[in-house]
Amino acid sequence: MKIENIFSYLVILALLFVSSLFTACNVNGPGIFYTIYNEKKISESLVSDKPVYKVVSAGSSLYVRAGAAVYKNDGTAWNKIDPPSAGMRAVSLGRIGSAIYAVYESEASGALSDTIYTLSGTSWSKLSDTVPAVSAIDGSLNLSLITVDHDNNIFFINQRTGSGTYSFYSFDGSFHTLTSEDVSQPVISAAVSGVNYFLAASNISGSSVLYTTNGSSTVTTVITTGFDTAKTIGGISEDALNGNLYLSTRDGYLYKSSDAAGVDWGTGSLNSTALTDSYGTACLGDMAVVDYNGTDYLIIAADNGYFEMDLTGTSPELPTVTAENFETYELSQEAVFSLYTETDKIYIGSDNGLWLSEYSGGPALDKE
Question: What sign results for the dihedral spanned by CA atoms 128, 134, 139, 143?
Fold first, then answer.
Protein backbone atom coordinates (compact mmCIF):
# COMPACT_ATOMS: atom_id res chain seq x y z
CA MET A 1 0.00 0.00 0.00
CA LYS A 2 1.33 3.45 -0.89
CA ILE A 3 2.33 5.78 1.90
CA GLU A 4 -0.18 8.44 0.83
CA ASN A 5 -2.98 5.85 0.92
CA ILE A 6 -1.93 4.73 4.40
CA PHE A 7 -1.95 8.34 5.55
CA SER A 8 -5.44 8.91 4.11
CA TYR A 9 -6.70 5.76 5.80
CA LEU A 10 -5.35 6.87 9.18
CA VAL A 11 -6.93 10.31 8.78
CA ILE A 12 -10.32 8.74 8.06
CA LEU A 13 -10.03 6.50 11.13
CA ALA A 14 -9.14 9.49 13.30
CA LEU A 15 -12.12 11.48 12.03
CA LEU A 16 -14.46 8.55 12.65
CA PHE A 17 -13.16 8.19 16.19
CA VAL A 18 -13.66 11.89 17.00
CA SER A 19 -17.13 11.78 15.48
CA SER A 20 -18.04 8.75 17.59
CA LEU A 21 -17.28 10.69 20.77
CA PHE A 22 -20.14 13.03 19.97
CA THR A 23 -22.70 10.68 18.45
CA ALA A 24 -22.36 7.15 19.75
CA CYS A 25 -23.65 7.59 23.27
CA ASN A 26 -26.82 9.64 23.15
CA VAL A 27 -29.31 9.80 20.31
CA ASN A 28 -30.72 13.07 21.67
CA GLY A 29 -27.55 15.13 21.38
CA PRO A 30 -23.77 15.10 21.65
CA GLY A 31 -23.88 13.35 25.00
CA ILE A 32 -21.69 15.73 26.96
CA PHE A 33 -21.65 13.48 29.98
CA TYR A 34 -22.39 10.07 28.53
CA THR A 35 -19.15 10.26 26.55
CA ILE A 36 -17.32 10.49 29.90
CA TYR A 37 -13.97 10.80 28.12
CA ASN A 38 -12.94 13.89 30.08
CA GLU A 39 -14.84 13.23 33.29
CA LYS A 40 -12.68 12.45 36.26
CA LYS A 41 -12.88 11.80 39.94
CA ILE A 42 -11.11 14.37 42.09
CA SER A 43 -8.78 11.93 43.78
CA GLU A 44 -5.96 12.08 46.30
CA SER A 45 -7.80 14.70 48.33
CA LEU A 46 -9.53 14.94 51.68
CA VAL A 47 -12.92 14.43 49.99
CA SER A 48 -12.01 11.67 47.52
CA ASP A 49 -13.55 8.78 49.46
CA LYS A 50 -16.31 10.61 51.34
CA PRO A 51 -19.96 11.14 50.44
CA VAL A 52 -20.26 14.68 49.04
CA TYR A 53 -23.71 16.11 49.74
CA LYS A 54 -23.33 19.75 48.69
CA VAL A 55 -21.01 21.89 46.57
CA VAL A 56 -20.90 25.72 46.50
CA SER A 57 -18.31 28.32 45.53
CA ALA A 58 -17.42 31.79 46.74
CA GLY A 59 -14.80 33.90 45.03
CA SER A 60 -12.09 31.58 43.77
CA SER A 61 -12.71 28.91 46.43
CA LEU A 62 -14.83 25.78 46.34
CA TYR A 63 -16.62 24.49 49.45
CA VAL A 64 -18.18 21.08 49.98
CA ARG A 65 -20.06 19.31 52.74
CA ALA A 66 -18.51 15.87 52.73
CA GLY A 67 -19.49 13.39 55.40
CA ALA A 68 -20.06 15.42 58.57
CA ALA A 69 -17.57 18.19 57.80
CA VAL A 70 -17.01 21.22 55.55
CA TYR A 71 -13.94 21.37 53.29
CA LYS A 72 -12.46 24.22 51.27
CA ASN A 73 -10.34 24.24 48.14
CA ASP A 74 -8.63 27.56 47.41
CA GLY A 75 -7.41 26.44 44.00
CA THR A 76 -4.30 24.69 45.25
CA ALA A 77 -5.28 22.29 48.06
CA TRP A 78 -8.16 20.93 50.10
CA ASN A 79 -8.41 21.81 53.77
CA LYS A 80 -10.90 20.81 56.42
CA ILE A 81 -12.60 23.70 58.19
CA ASP A 82 -12.83 22.90 61.87
CA PRO A 83 -16.35 22.89 63.36
CA PRO A 84 -17.41 25.66 65.78
CA SER A 85 -16.79 23.25 68.66
CA ALA A 86 -15.24 19.80 68.86
CA GLY A 87 -17.67 16.99 68.10
CA MET A 88 -20.14 19.10 66.11
CA ARG A 89 -21.37 17.72 62.76
CA ALA A 90 -22.09 19.73 59.60
CA VAL A 91 -25.58 18.85 58.34
CA SER A 92 -26.22 21.59 55.74
CA LEU A 93 -24.27 24.09 53.62
CA GLY A 94 -25.20 27.23 51.67
CA ARG A 95 -23.99 30.62 50.59
CA ILE A 96 -25.13 34.16 49.81
CA GLY A 97 -22.78 36.15 47.61
CA SER A 98 -19.31 35.52 48.99
CA ALA A 99 -20.56 34.48 52.45
CA ILE A 100 -20.62 30.79 53.44
CA TYR A 101 -23.20 29.41 55.88
CA ALA A 102 -23.60 26.00 57.51
CA VAL A 103 -25.85 24.24 59.97
CA TYR A 104 -23.96 22.35 62.67
CA GLU A 105 -25.54 19.74 64.89
CA SER A 106 -24.47 19.27 68.49
CA GLU A 107 -25.49 16.90 71.25
CA ALA A 108 -25.86 17.75 74.94
CA SER A 109 -27.33 15.45 77.59
CA GLY A 110 -28.55 13.11 74.86
CA ALA A 111 -30.48 15.85 73.01
CA LEU A 112 -29.60 17.02 69.48
CA SER A 113 -29.85 20.65 68.39
CA ASP A 114 -28.95 22.55 65.21
CA THR A 115 -27.48 26.04 64.87
CA ILE A 116 -26.79 28.22 61.81
CA TYR A 117 -23.25 29.56 61.52
CA THR A 118 -21.46 31.90 59.12
CA LEU A 119 -17.81 31.55 58.12
CA SER A 120 -15.19 34.26 58.60
CA GLY A 121 -11.79 33.12 57.40
CA THR A 122 -11.47 29.72 59.05
CA SER A 123 -13.73 30.41 62.04
CA TRP A 124 -17.49 30.02 62.47
CA SER A 125 -19.79 32.41 64.34
CA LYS A 126 -23.49 32.09 65.09
CA LEU A 127 -25.63 33.85 62.54
CA SER A 128 -27.91 34.92 65.42
CA ASP A 129 -25.05 37.03 66.79
CA THR A 130 -25.53 39.48 63.90
CA VAL A 131 -29.15 38.61 62.98
CA PRO A 132 -30.94 38.22 66.35
CA ALA A 133 -34.18 36.96 64.77
CA VAL A 134 -32.39 33.73 63.82
CA SER A 135 -32.18 32.84 67.52
CA ALA A 136 -35.86 31.86 67.32
CA ILE A 137 -34.94 28.71 65.37
CA ASP A 138 -31.44 27.99 66.68
CA GLY A 139 -31.53 24.93 68.89
CA SER A 140 -34.19 23.23 66.75
CA LEU A 141 -33.77 19.75 65.35
CA ASN A 142 -33.29 19.17 61.61
CA LEU A 143 -32.56 22.69 60.38
CA SER A 144 -31.53 22.66 56.72
CA LEU A 145 -30.51 25.29 54.16
CA ILE A 146 -31.99 25.13 50.65
CA THR A 147 -30.06 27.10 48.02
CA VAL A 148 -31.58 28.36 44.77
CA ASP A 149 -30.50 27.81 41.17
CA HIS A 150 -29.73 31.09 39.36
CA ASP A 151 -29.88 33.14 42.58
CA ASN A 152 -27.00 33.57 44.99
CA ASN A 153 -28.76 36.18 47.12
CA ILE A 154 -31.05 34.02 49.23
CA PHE A 155 -31.48 30.62 50.83
CA PHE A 156 -34.47 28.97 52.45
CA ILE A 157 -34.53 27.26 55.82
CA ASN A 158 -36.49 24.23 57.00
CA GLN A 159 -37.24 23.95 60.69
CA ARG A 160 -38.61 20.68 62.04
CA THR A 161 -40.89 21.35 64.99
CA GLY A 162 -41.32 19.20 68.07
CA SER A 163 -44.53 17.73 66.67
CA GLY A 164 -42.77 16.52 63.52
CA THR A 165 -44.17 19.22 61.23
CA TYR A 166 -42.18 21.96 59.45
CA SER A 167 -41.91 25.72 59.25
CA PHE A 168 -40.15 27.65 56.44
CA TYR A 169 -37.98 30.74 56.57
CA SER A 170 -35.74 32.66 54.19
CA PHE A 171 -32.55 34.60 54.67
CA ASP A 172 -31.30 37.29 52.27
CA GLY A 173 -29.40 39.35 54.81
CA SER A 174 -32.67 39.67 56.70
CA PHE A 175 -34.63 36.85 58.29
CA HIS A 176 -38.20 36.20 57.05
CA THR A 177 -40.92 33.84 58.27
CA LEU A 178 -42.69 32.20 55.31
CA THR A 179 -45.27 29.93 56.97
CA SER A 180 -48.25 31.03 59.03
CA GLU A 181 -48.73 27.50 60.35
CA ASP A 182 -46.78 24.26 60.46
CA VAL A 183 -46.95 21.97 57.40
CA SER A 184 -46.35 18.26 57.03
CA GLN A 185 -43.71 18.26 54.26
CA PRO A 186 -40.20 19.76 54.36
CA VAL A 187 -38.84 21.81 51.46
CA ILE A 188 -36.32 19.65 49.61
CA SER A 189 -35.52 21.84 46.59
CA ALA A 190 -36.04 25.40 45.33
CA ALA A 191 -35.98 27.29 42.03
CA VAL A 192 -36.64 30.83 40.85
CA SER A 193 -38.68 31.93 37.85
CA GLY A 194 -39.04 35.64 37.22
CA VAL A 195 -39.70 37.33 40.56
CA ASN A 196 -41.12 34.22 42.21
CA TYR A 197 -39.42 31.42 44.09
CA PHE A 198 -40.81 27.90 43.96
CA LEU A 199 -40.35 25.60 46.93
CA ALA A 200 -40.85 21.88 46.32
CA ALA A 201 -41.94 20.24 49.56
CA SER A 202 -42.20 16.48 49.84
CA ASN A 203 -41.92 13.54 52.21
CA ILE A 204 -41.08 9.89 51.77
CA SER A 205 -44.69 8.80 52.16
CA GLY A 206 -45.41 10.21 48.70
CA SER A 207 -47.10 13.52 49.47
CA SER A 208 -45.89 16.67 47.68
CA VAL A 209 -46.79 20.36 47.58
CA LEU A 210 -45.40 23.18 45.42
CA TYR A 211 -45.28 26.60 47.09
CA THR A 212 -44.47 30.05 45.74
CA THR A 213 -43.19 33.19 47.47
CA ASN A 214 -41.44 36.42 46.58
CA GLY A 215 -38.79 35.44 49.13
CA SER A 216 -40.04 37.50 52.05
CA SER A 217 -43.80 36.96 52.20
CA THR A 218 -45.83 33.96 53.37
CA VAL A 219 -45.81 31.05 50.92
CA THR A 220 -48.92 30.21 48.92
CA THR A 221 -49.78 26.81 47.49
CA VAL A 222 -49.55 26.40 43.72
CA ILE A 223 -52.49 24.43 42.36
CA THR A 224 -50.65 22.19 39.93
CA THR A 225 -52.44 20.61 36.97
CA GLY A 226 -50.84 17.54 35.43
CA PHE A 227 -48.41 16.78 38.27
CA ASP A 228 -49.15 13.78 40.49
CA THR A 229 -48.85 15.18 44.03
CA ALA A 230 -48.92 11.64 45.42
CA LYS A 231 -45.35 11.22 44.17
CA THR A 232 -42.25 12.11 46.18
CA ILE A 233 -40.35 15.00 44.55
CA GLY A 234 -36.62 14.59 43.99
CA GLY A 235 -35.82 18.14 42.83
CA ILE A 236 -37.01 21.25 40.99
CA SER A 237 -35.06 23.27 38.43
CA GLU A 238 -35.67 26.02 35.91
CA ASP A 239 -34.68 26.37 32.26
CA ALA A 240 -34.12 30.13 32.39
CA LEU A 241 -33.93 30.63 28.62
CA ASN A 242 -37.21 28.88 27.84
CA GLY A 243 -39.13 29.76 31.02
CA ASN A 244 -39.99 26.18 32.01
CA LEU A 245 -39.78 24.46 35.37
CA TYR A 246 -38.86 20.79 35.79
CA LEU A 247 -39.76 18.42 38.61
CA SER A 248 -38.10 15.04 39.12
CA THR A 249 -39.56 12.27 41.28
CA ARG A 250 -38.01 9.55 43.38
CA ASP A 251 -39.76 6.86 41.31
CA GLY A 252 -38.22 7.76 37.96
CA TYR A 253 -40.50 10.38 36.41
CA LEU A 254 -39.80 13.85 35.01
CA TYR A 255 -42.38 16.65 34.66
CA LYS A 256 -42.17 19.89 32.67
CA SER A 257 -44.34 22.95 33.27
CA SER A 258 -45.95 24.66 30.32
CA ASP A 259 -45.58 28.05 31.97
CA ALA A 260 -43.26 29.96 34.27
CA ALA A 261 -45.94 30.08 36.98
CA GLY A 262 -45.60 26.37 37.76
CA VAL A 263 -49.36 25.84 37.39
CA ASP A 264 -49.73 23.88 34.15
CA TRP A 265 -47.67 20.67 33.97
CA GLY A 266 -49.33 19.37 30.83
CA THR A 267 -51.06 16.01 30.78
CA GLY A 268 -48.52 14.20 32.92
CA SER A 269 -44.87 13.19 33.02
CA LEU A 270 -42.61 13.49 29.98
CA ASN A 271 -41.84 9.78 30.22
CA SER A 272 -44.80 7.38 30.16
CA THR A 273 -42.85 4.71 32.05
CA ALA A 274 -40.35 5.16 34.85
CA LEU A 275 -36.73 5.74 33.91
CA THR A 276 -34.60 2.71 34.62
CA ASP A 277 -30.94 1.88 34.80
CA SER A 278 -29.17 -1.47 35.01
CA TYR A 279 -30.22 -1.73 38.67
CA GLY A 280 -33.95 -1.07 38.21
CA THR A 281 -36.16 2.00 38.57
CA ALA A 282 -34.13 5.21 38.74
CA CYS A 283 -34.52 7.39 41.82
CA LEU A 284 -34.21 10.96 40.50
CA GLY A 285 -33.01 13.95 42.50
CA ASP A 286 -31.14 17.22 41.98
CA MET A 287 -31.06 18.86 38.53
CA ALA A 288 -28.96 21.44 36.69
CA VAL A 289 -29.16 23.14 33.29
CA VAL A 290 -26.02 23.59 31.20
CA ASP A 291 -25.34 25.20 27.83
CA TYR A 292 -23.26 23.00 25.54
CA ASN A 293 -22.32 24.80 22.31
CA GLY A 294 -25.58 26.74 22.29
CA THR A 295 -27.85 23.83 23.23
CA ASP A 296 -29.40 23.52 26.69
CA TYR A 297 -29.21 20.21 28.53
CA LEU A 298 -30.92 19.18 31.74
CA ILE A 299 -28.72 17.01 33.95
CA ILE A 300 -30.68 14.83 36.38
CA ALA A 301 -29.00 13.22 39.38
CA ALA A 302 -30.01 9.66 40.18
CA ASP A 303 -29.23 6.91 42.65
CA ASN A 304 -26.95 5.34 40.03
CA GLY A 305 -25.20 8.09 38.08
CA TYR A 306 -27.40 10.57 36.21
CA PHE A 307 -29.42 11.23 33.07
CA GLU A 308 -29.16 14.05 30.54
CA MET A 309 -31.83 15.50 28.30
CA ASP A 310 -31.66 17.83 25.32
CA LEU A 311 -34.08 20.68 26.07
CA THR A 312 -34.59 21.77 22.46
CA GLY A 313 -37.91 21.04 20.85
CA THR A 314 -41.35 20.83 22.43
CA SER A 315 -41.22 17.23 23.56
CA PRO A 316 -37.62 16.15 24.17
CA GLU A 317 -36.93 12.48 24.65
CA LEU A 318 -35.04 11.11 27.60
CA PRO A 319 -31.84 9.21 26.86
CA THR A 320 -31.25 5.72 28.12
CA VAL A 321 -28.39 4.71 30.40
CA THR A 322 -27.00 2.06 28.12
CA ALA A 323 -24.05 3.93 26.67
CA GLU A 324 -21.00 1.69 26.85
CA ASN A 325 -18.68 4.32 28.28
CA PHE A 326 -21.12 5.26 31.02
CA GLU A 327 -21.96 1.68 31.99
CA THR A 328 -18.31 0.76 32.46
CA TYR A 329 -17.49 3.85 34.50
CA GLU A 330 -17.43 3.92 38.28
CA LEU A 331 -19.78 6.91 38.48
CA SER A 332 -22.65 4.92 36.92
CA GLN A 333 -22.75 2.89 40.13
CA GLU A 334 -22.64 5.85 42.53
CA ALA A 335 -25.55 7.77 44.03
CA VAL A 336 -25.36 11.40 42.89
CA PHE A 337 -26.45 13.83 45.61
CA SER A 338 -25.68 17.25 44.13
CA LEU A 339 -24.83 19.08 40.91
CA TYR A 340 -23.01 22.41 40.78
CA THR A 341 -22.12 24.23 37.57
CA GLU A 342 -19.59 26.85 36.63
CA THR A 343 -18.52 28.01 33.18
CA ASP A 344 -17.57 24.94 31.13
CA LYS A 345 -17.55 22.59 34.10
CA ILE A 346 -19.90 20.73 36.41
CA TYR A 347 -19.11 19.31 39.84
CA ILE A 348 -20.88 16.11 40.81
CA GLY A 349 -21.19 15.22 44.48
CA SER A 350 -21.58 11.46 44.91
CA ASP A 351 -21.55 8.88 47.67
CA ASN A 352 -17.96 8.15 46.65
CA GLY A 353 -16.29 11.53 46.40
CA LEU A 354 -16.40 14.59 44.17
CA TRP A 355 -16.31 14.36 40.38
CA LEU A 356 -15.60 17.00 37.77
CA SER A 357 -16.69 17.05 34.15
CA GLU A 358 -15.20 19.75 31.94
CA TYR A 359 -16.75 20.51 28.59
CA SER A 360 -16.71 23.18 25.92
CA GLY A 361 -19.83 25.30 26.07
CA GLY A 362 -21.26 28.66 26.91
CA PRO A 363 -21.68 30.29 30.31
CA ALA A 364 -23.32 28.06 32.91
CA LEU A 365 -26.99 28.77 33.52
CA ASP A 366 -27.20 27.12 36.88
CA LYS A 367 -25.19 28.40 39.82
CA GLU A 368 -26.22 27.96 43.42
Answer: negative
Tell whether the torsion through CA atoms of 54, 208, 252 and 269 is positive or negative.
negative
pLDDT in tens, the chain (368 residues): 444 444 444 333 343 333 332 222 333 333 444 433 345 677 667 888 899 999 999 888 999 999 999 999 988 889 999 999 999 999 999 999 999 999 999 987 778 899 999 999 999 999 999 999 999 999 988 899 999 977 889 999 999 987 889 999 999 999 999 998 889 999 999 999 878 999 999 988 888 999 999 999 999 999 788 898 999 999 999 887 777 899 999 999 999 988 778 888 887 888 888 888 778 898 999 998 887 777 788 888 999 888 888 887 655 555 544 444 444 457 777 899 999 988 778 888 999 889 887 776 655 544 33
Cβ neighbours around 208 below 10 Å, total = 22
Q: What is the pTM of this model?
A: 0.84
- C-alpha distance from residue 201 to each of 13, 180, 210, 337 (Å): 52, 16, 6, 17
- CB atoms under 10 Å from CB of 60, counted, come to 8
Query: How far are the Cα atoms of 136, 163, 179, 182, 230 from residue 167, in angstroms, in the given order?
Result: 12, 11, 6, 5, 21
How many angstroms separate the CA atoms of 46 and 235, rounded? 28
Name the strand (E) or helix (H) holding 21: helix 3-23
Residues 133 and 126: beta-carbon distance below 8 Å: no
- Please identify, in words, the CATH class of the domain defined by 26-358: mainly beta
Q: Are strands 196-203 and 207-213 parallel, antiparallel or unpaired?
A: antiparallel
